[in-house]
Design brief:
This is Ommochrome-binding protein. Helix content is 2%, strand content 51%. The chain is mainly β. The structure holds 2-acetamido-2-deoxy-beta-D-glucopyranose (2 copies).
Protein backbone atom coordinates (compact mmCIF):
# COMPACT_ATOMS: atom_id res chain seq x y z
CA UNK A 1 0.00 0.00 0.00
CA UNK A 2 2.54 2.54 1.15
CA UNK A 3 4.97 1.60 -1.51
CA UNK A 4 2.51 2.53 -4.24
CA UNK A 5 2.64 6.08 -3.03
CA UNK A 6 6.40 6.11 -3.03
CA UNK A 7 6.70 4.38 -6.37
CA UNK A 8 4.15 6.50 -8.16
CA UNK A 9 6.59 9.25 -8.91
CA UNK A 10 9.74 7.20 -9.10
CA UNK A 11 9.45 5.11 -12.20
CA UNK A 12 12.23 6.87 -13.95
CA UNK A 13 15.47 7.15 -12.06
CA UNK A 14 17.83 9.50 -13.75
CA UNK A 15 21.31 10.59 -12.90
CA UNK A 16 21.40 14.21 -11.92
CA UNK A 17 23.76 16.17 -14.10
CA UNK A 18 23.94 19.90 -13.73
CA UNK A 19 24.79 21.63 -16.94
CA UNK A 20 26.33 25.01 -17.29
CA UNK A 21 23.92 26.21 -19.95
CA UNK A 22 26.06 28.86 -21.53
CA UNK A 23 29.03 26.69 -22.27
CA UNK A 24 27.43 23.27 -22.19
CA UNK A 25 30.03 22.15 -19.66
CA UNK A 26 29.40 20.44 -16.40
CA UNK A 27 29.49 22.33 -13.14
CA UNK A 28 30.28 20.16 -10.15
CA UNK A 29 28.30 22.25 -7.72
CA UNK A 30 24.80 23.65 -7.46
CA UNK A 31 24.07 27.36 -7.43
CA UNK A 32 21.47 28.54 -4.92
CA UNK A 33 20.75 32.26 -4.57
CA UNK A 34 23.84 32.93 -6.68
CA UNK A 35 26.04 31.07 -4.19
CA UNK A 36 27.99 28.02 -5.24
CA UNK A 37 27.24 24.91 -3.16
CA UNK A 38 29.39 21.80 -2.95
CA UNK A 39 27.50 18.56 -3.50
CA UNK A 40 28.57 16.25 -0.70
CA UNK A 41 27.45 12.64 -1.10
CA UNK A 42 26.63 11.21 2.35
CA UNK A 43 25.41 7.75 1.34
CA UNK A 44 24.94 5.94 -1.96
CA UNK A 45 23.17 2.75 -3.03
CA UNK A 46 20.18 3.19 -0.79
CA UNK A 47 16.61 2.85 -2.00
CA UNK A 48 14.46 5.98 -1.67
CA UNK A 49 15.58 7.46 1.66
CA UNK A 50 12.44 9.02 3.14
CA UNK A 51 11.25 11.24 6.02
CA UNK A 52 14.66 12.70 6.87
CA UNK A 53 15.29 14.35 10.23
CA UNK A 54 18.49 15.67 11.84
CA UNK A 55 19.58 15.45 15.47
CA UNK A 56 21.43 18.77 15.77
CA UNK A 57 23.44 17.75 18.84
CA UNK A 58 25.32 15.07 16.89
CA UNK A 59 24.59 16.29 13.34
CA UNK A 60 23.14 12.88 12.51
CA UNK A 61 20.49 12.44 9.82
CA UNK A 62 17.90 9.74 10.50
CA UNK A 63 15.73 8.43 7.68
CA UNK A 64 13.93 5.33 6.50
CA UNK A 65 14.51 3.48 3.27
CA UNK A 66 12.86 0.70 1.30
CA UNK A 67 14.47 -2.66 2.01
CA UNK A 68 13.06 -4.28 -1.13
CA UNK A 69 12.03 -2.78 -4.45
CA UNK A 70 8.34 -3.48 -4.31
CA UNK A 71 6.94 -4.35 -0.90
CA UNK A 72 6.15 -2.53 2.33
CA UNK A 73 9.30 -3.20 4.31
CA UNK A 74 11.18 -0.19 5.62
CA UNK A 75 14.04 0.38 7.98
CA UNK A 76 15.25 3.38 9.95
CA UNK A 77 18.94 4.15 9.52
CA UNK A 78 21.26 7.08 10.12
CA UNK A 79 24.37 8.78 8.83
CA UNK A 80 26.44 10.85 11.23
CA UNK A 81 27.36 13.78 9.00
CA UNK A 82 30.51 14.58 11.02
CA UNK A 83 31.99 11.07 11.07
CA UNK A 84 30.08 9.58 8.08
CA UNK A 85 29.20 6.55 10.25
CA UNK A 86 26.19 4.69 8.85
CA UNK A 87 24.05 2.24 10.83
CA UNK A 88 20.59 0.74 10.91
CA UNK A 89 18.42 0.93 14.02
CA UNK A 90 17.54 -2.34 15.68
CA UNK A 91 14.47 -3.36 17.66
CA UNK A 92 11.94 -1.53 15.49
CA UNK A 93 9.28 -3.22 13.40
CA UNK A 94 9.29 -1.46 10.03
CA UNK A 95 10.80 1.86 11.06
CA UNK A 96 9.24 4.42 8.74
CA UNK A 97 9.00 7.90 10.29
CA UNK A 98 11.45 9.69 12.57
CA UNK A 99 11.67 12.96 14.50
CA UNK A 100 13.92 14.58 17.11
CA UNK A 101 13.27 16.32 20.42
CA UNK A 102 16.25 18.66 20.01
CA UNK A 103 16.20 19.93 23.60
CA UNK A 104 16.52 16.47 25.11
CA UNK A 105 18.43 14.78 22.28
CA UNK A 106 15.71 12.12 21.98
CA UNK A 107 14.96 10.34 18.71
CA UNK A 108 11.41 9.06 18.15
CA UNK A 109 10.53 6.54 15.50
CA UNK A 110 7.19 5.38 14.13
CA UNK A 111 6.86 1.91 12.67
CA UNK A 112 4.24 -0.69 11.86
CA UNK A 113 3.55 -1.52 15.50
CA UNK A 114 3.66 1.83 17.20
CA UNK A 115 5.99 4.47 18.58
CA UNK A 116 9.57 3.93 19.71
CA UNK A 117 12.24 5.95 21.44
CA UNK A 118 15.83 5.33 20.42
CA UNK A 119 18.21 4.23 23.15
CA UNK A 120 21.59 5.73 22.20
CA UNK A 121 23.51 3.30 24.43
CA UNK A 122 22.02 0.02 23.25
CA UNK A 123 21.39 1.42 19.74
CA UNK A 124 17.90 -0.08 19.71
CA UNK A 125 14.38 1.29 19.63
CA UNK A 126 12.25 0.91 22.73
CA UNK A 127 8.51 0.71 22.40
CA UNK A 128 6.76 3.65 24.12
CA UNK A 129 3.16 3.55 22.91
CA UNK A 130 0.47 3.47 20.22
CA UNK A 131 0.83 -0.29 20.22
CA UNK A 132 -0.85 -1.88 17.25
CA UNK A 133 -0.97 1.36 15.27
CA UNK A 134 0.77 1.64 11.95
CA UNK A 135 2.53 4.99 12.18
CA UNK A 136 2.58 7.09 9.05
CA UNK A 137 4.30 10.28 10.15
CA UNK A 138 5.71 11.82 13.30
CA UNK A 139 6.87 15.27 14.48
CA UNK A 140 8.12 16.66 17.75
CA UNK A 141 7.50 20.22 18.91
CA UNK A 142 7.02 20.52 22.68
CA UNK A 143 5.11 17.23 22.47
CA UNK A 144 5.04 14.30 20.12
CA UNK A 145 2.52 14.28 17.24
CA UNK A 146 1.89 11.34 14.97
CA UNK A 147 -0.44 10.24 12.21
CA UNK A 148 -1.58 6.72 11.49
CA UNK A 149 -1.95 4.59 8.41
CA UNK A 150 -4.20 4.02 6.53
CA UNK A 151 -6.81 6.34 8.11
CA UNK A 152 -4.41 9.35 8.33
CA UNK A 153 -5.71 10.57 11.69
CA UNK A 154 -3.49 12.94 13.66
CA UNK A 155 -2.76 12.25 17.34
CA UNK A 156 -0.80 13.76 20.19
CA UNK A 157 1.23 11.57 22.52
CA UNK A 158 1.72 12.90 26.07
CA UNK A 159 2.65 10.90 29.17
CA UNK A 160 2.13 7.65 27.34
CA UNK A 161 -1.36 8.61 26.22
CA UNK A 162 -2.63 9.04 22.66
CA UNK A 163 -5.40 11.50 21.83
CA UNK A 164 -6.81 12.81 18.56
CA UNK A 165 -5.43 16.28 17.81
CA UNK A 166 -8.45 18.53 18.36
CA UNK A 167 -7.73 21.18 15.72
CA UNK A 168 -7.72 18.62 12.92
CA UNK A 169 -10.24 16.06 14.03
CA UNK A 170 -12.26 16.20 10.83
CA UNK A 171 -9.35 16.16 8.44
CA UNK A 172 -6.95 13.64 7.03
CA UNK A 173 -3.31 14.47 7.58
CA UNK A 174 -0.44 13.03 5.57
CA UNK A 175 2.84 14.95 6.06
CA UNK A 176 2.97 17.62 8.79
CA UNK A 177 5.37 19.93 10.66
CA UNK A 178 4.98 22.88 13.06
CA UNK A 179 6.83 26.13 12.37
CA UNK A 180 8.35 28.82 14.64
CA UNK A 181 4.98 30.59 15.00
CA UNK A 182 3.04 27.46 15.95
CA UNK A 183 1.47 27.14 12.53
CA UNK A 184 0.96 23.54 11.62
CA UNK A 185 1.64 22.84 7.97
CA UNK A 186 0.15 19.64 6.63
CA UNK A 187 -0.75 17.89 3.42
CA UNK A 188 -3.71 15.73 2.56
CA UNK A 189 -5.21 14.72 -0.77
CA UNK A 190 -6.75 18.21 -1.10
CA UNK A 191 -3.50 20.16 -0.82
CA UNK A 192 -0.89 21.79 1.41
CA UNK A 193 -2.36 23.84 4.26
CA UNK A 194 -1.21 26.01 7.14
CA UNK A 195 -3.25 26.02 10.34
CA UNK A 196 -2.60 28.26 13.32
CA UNK A 197 -2.64 26.01 16.37
CA UNK A 198 -5.78 26.54 18.40
CA UNK A 199 -7.82 27.62 15.38
CA UNK A 200 -9.68 25.56 12.84
CA UNK A 201 -9.07 27.86 9.93
CA UNK A 202 -6.69 26.17 7.51
CA UNK A 203 -5.10 28.32 4.82
CA UNK A 204 -4.44 26.76 1.44
CA UNK A 205 -0.84 27.03 0.16
CA UNK A 206 -0.99 24.62 -2.73
CA UNK A 207 -3.87 22.84 -4.37
CA UNK A 208 -3.29 19.10 -4.57
CA UNK A 209 -0.46 17.50 -2.68
CA UNK A 210 0.48 15.36 -5.63
CA UNK A 211 4.24 15.12 -5.88
CA UNK A 212 4.91 16.51 -2.40
CA UNK A 213 7.25 14.01 -0.75
CA UNK A 214 8.86 15.88 2.10
CA UNK A 215 7.86 18.60 4.55
CA UNK A 216 10.40 19.89 7.05
CA UNK A 217 11.54 22.80 9.20
CA UNK A 218 15.02 24.35 9.12
CA UNK A 219 16.96 25.32 12.26
CA UNK A 220 15.02 28.58 12.47
CA UNK A 221 11.65 26.86 12.22
CA UNK A 222 10.92 27.94 8.64
CA UNK A 223 9.03 25.41 6.53
CA UNK A 224 10.37 23.79 3.36
CA UNK A 225 8.98 21.08 1.14
CA UNK A 226 10.36 18.87 -1.58
CA UNK A 227 8.70 17.40 -4.61
CA UNK A 228 9.92 15.17 -7.39
CA UNK A 229 11.44 18.20 -9.09
CA UNK A 230 12.92 20.36 -6.40
CA UNK A 231 13.07 22.03 -3.02
CA UNK A 232 10.70 24.86 -2.13
CA UNK A 233 10.40 27.38 0.70
CA UNK A 234 6.97 28.05 2.14
CA UNK A 235 6.35 31.80 2.05
CA UNK A 236 3.80 32.78 4.68
CA UNK A 237 3.43 36.38 3.48
CA UNK A 238 2.36 35.42 -0.03
CA UNK A 239 0.85 32.00 0.84
CA UNK A 240 2.96 30.39 -1.88
CA UNK A 241 5.85 28.01 -2.38
CA UNK A 242 9.05 29.45 -3.82
CA UNK A 243 11.52 27.22 -5.56
CA UNK A 244 14.95 27.14 -3.93
CA UNK A 245 16.67 24.68 -6.24
CA UNK A 246 15.88 22.09 -8.90
CA UNK A 247 16.50 18.54 -7.74
CA UNK A 248 15.96 15.56 -9.94
CA UNK A 249 13.68 13.05 -8.19
CA UNK A 250 13.99 14.41 -4.63
CA UNK A 251 12.48 12.14 -1.97
CA UNK A 252 13.30 13.64 1.40
CA UNK A 253 14.54 16.89 2.92
CA UNK A 254 16.06 18.13 6.17
CA UNK A 255 18.61 20.69 7.38
CA UNK A 256 21.82 20.01 9.29
CA UNK A 257 22.88 21.94 12.40
CA UNK A 258 24.43 24.71 10.29
CA UNK A 259 21.27 24.99 8.23
CA UNK A 260 22.72 23.30 5.15
CA UNK A 261 20.25 21.46 2.93
CA UNK A 262 20.29 17.67 3.28
CA UNK A 263 18.19 15.81 0.76
CA UNK A 264 17.70 12.39 -0.75
CA UNK A 265 16.86 11.27 -4.24
CA UNK A 266 15.90 7.76 -5.34
CA UNK A 267 19.33 6.26 -4.60
CA UNK A 268 21.38 8.51 -2.31
CA UNK A 269 21.68 11.09 0.47
CA UNK A 270 23.30 14.43 -0.30
CA UNK A 271 24.29 17.59 1.56
CA UNK A 272 24.69 21.00 -0.12
CA UNK A 273 27.36 23.22 1.44
CA UNK A 274 27.99 26.82 0.38
CA UNK A 275 31.49 27.68 -0.83
CA UNK A 276 31.94 31.35 -1.65
CA UNK A 277 35.36 30.75 -3.24
CA UNK A 278 33.97 28.69 -6.08
CA UNK A 279 31.55 29.35 -8.90
CA UNK A 280 30.05 27.58 -11.86
CA UNK A 281 31.54 30.20 -14.14
CA UNK A 282 34.12 28.11 -15.97
CA UNK A 283 36.15 31.09 -17.21
CA UNK A 284 38.43 30.94 -14.15
C1 LIG B 1 -7.60 18.47 3.93
O1 LIG B 1 -7.58 19.54 4.84
C2 LIG B 1 -8.42 20.62 4.53
C3 LIG B 1 -8.21 21.71 5.54
O2 LIG B 1 -8.48 21.27 6.84
C4 LIG B 1 -9.86 20.15 4.47
O3 LIG B 1 -10.70 21.22 4.08
C5 LIG B 1 -9.98 18.99 3.49
O4 LIG B 1 -11.29 18.46 3.53
C6 LIG B 1 -9.00 17.91 3.84
N1 LIG B 1 -9.03 16.84 2.86
C7 LIG B 1 -9.17 15.56 3.21
C8 LIG B 1 -9.13 14.57 2.09
O5 LIG B 1 -9.32 15.22 4.37
C1 LIG C 1 -8.48 32.42 8.03
O1 LIG C 1 -7.12 32.73 7.80
C2 LIG C 1 -6.86 33.54 6.68
C3 LIG C 1 -5.37 33.64 6.46
O2 LIG C 1 -4.68 33.80 7.67
C4 LIG C 1 -7.53 34.89 6.90
O3 LIG C 1 -7.31 35.71 5.77
C5 LIG C 1 -9.03 34.68 7.11
O4 LIG C 1 -9.66 35.90 7.42
C6 LIG C 1 -9.28 33.69 8.25
N1 LIG C 1 -10.71 33.37 8.33
C7 LIG C 1 -11.35 33.27 9.48
C8 LIG C 1 -12.77 32.89 9.38
O5 LIG C 1 -10.81 33.46 10.56
Amino acid sequence: MRILLLLANALIIRAAVIENNEKGKKCEGIVIDEIYHEVEILKTDIDRPYLLTVDYSTNTVYFSYSVNKDDDIFKTAYVNMNTKEYAELKGINNGFAQTVDQKNHEIYIGGSSGLYKYNHKTKTGEHIGAKGSDIWNIYFKDILYYSTFPNQFLYTFVNGESNRFKDLEDTKVDLFVIDNEDTMFFTNATGLFGLQKGSQNATLYKESSEGIRGLTTDINGNVYTCTADGIFKVDKSSLTLEKVVDIDDAFGLAFDNENNIVYSDATKLVRLKPNKYKSCDLKN
